[in-house]
Design goal:
The protein is mainly beta. The protein contains one helix and 18 strands. The radius of gyration is 32 Å and the shape is rod-shaped. The strands form six sheets. A five-stranded antiparallel β-sheet has the order 10-7-18-12-15, with no helix packed on it. It is 7% helix and 42% strand. The protein has three domains: 36 residues, no CATH class; 45 residues, no CATH class; 139 residues, Jelly Rolls (Sandwich), CATH 2.60.120.
């Protein structure tokens, strides 16, 4: 018996008797029915941009379209092995600074309050609400490069310490002990952290000179912090 060229459905030969026509048609119809049962129905997708992906061998599922600007990326923890995530095109993050000095009390760990932004791509920071905080936006969890500069006014007594806090707890610290009575002291540090949406970063500092000491902000960009998204 002949077969169809693609799905190999049985077809009657040209020489088959007419009395076998009904059987041949029924046999081919059954084969078609069996094939159609294995095909993916169009009802599996229900919105513009939906994708069909596998959740296991011979098992399909709908992957809903992501939001504008997201890209499709592999994720072994997702049901389909795929997810929509923020694209890496263009820098994401913020750069903050102060426009005035901030007084740091003696022997008191103090959060730096940021009152100006050089840039802020995705509302990481607010100059009025919780101005000490840099909060990771929804959809932008991942690895971040955190860098900051804390310039202290001149004083040769004690030490100067810089901290990075995550959600109110210490994440990283560094100290500067080479002090001078004639020139200021810069506490510079860089750290890479894994952060999720809703985490917030704060920069804290400490000095024990014996009295209050200024972190200098009167010169634009002197005291600053940058939080830069590196990717998921």
């Amino acid at each position: 018996m002949a077969t169809s060229p693609i799905y190999n459905w049985p077809e009657p030969d040209n020489t088959d008797l007419v009395k076998n026509g009904a059987l041949a048609i029924r046999t081919m119809g059954d084969a078609i029915d069996t094939t159609m049962a294995t095909m993916t129905p169009k009802s599996i997708v229900d919105a513009k941009g939906d994708l069909i992906a596998a959740t296991a061998a011979d098992t399909l599922a709908r992957l809903a379209v992501g939001t504008n600007g997201q890209v499709l990326t592999a994720d072994s923890t997702a049901a389909t092995g795929l997810k929509w995530a923020a694209g890496t095109t263009g820098a994401k993050g913020c750069s903050l600074y102060r426009t005035a000095d901030q007084s740091i009390a003696n022997s008191t760990a103090t959060l730096i309050s940021w009152n100006n932004e050089l840039y802020d791509t995705d509302a990481y920071h607010d100059n009025s609400t919780n101005p000490t905080r840099i909060t990771i936006p929804t959809g932008l969890g991942g690895k971040y490069l955190i860098s900051t500069t804390l310039p202290y006014s001149q004083n040769a007594v004690g030490q100067r310490v810089g901290y990075i806090n995550k959600n109110g707890s210490l994440l990283y610290l560094t100290a500067q002990g080479n002090l001078s009575a004639t020139i200021g002291t810069f506490v510079d540090y860089v750290y890479t952290a894994e952060l999720v949406a809703g985490d917030y970063i704060e920069i804290q500092t400490f000095q024990d000179s014996g009295g209050a000491l200024n972190v200098l902000g009167a010169v634009t960009y002197y005291v600053n912090v940058q939080v830069t998204y590196l990717g998921a």
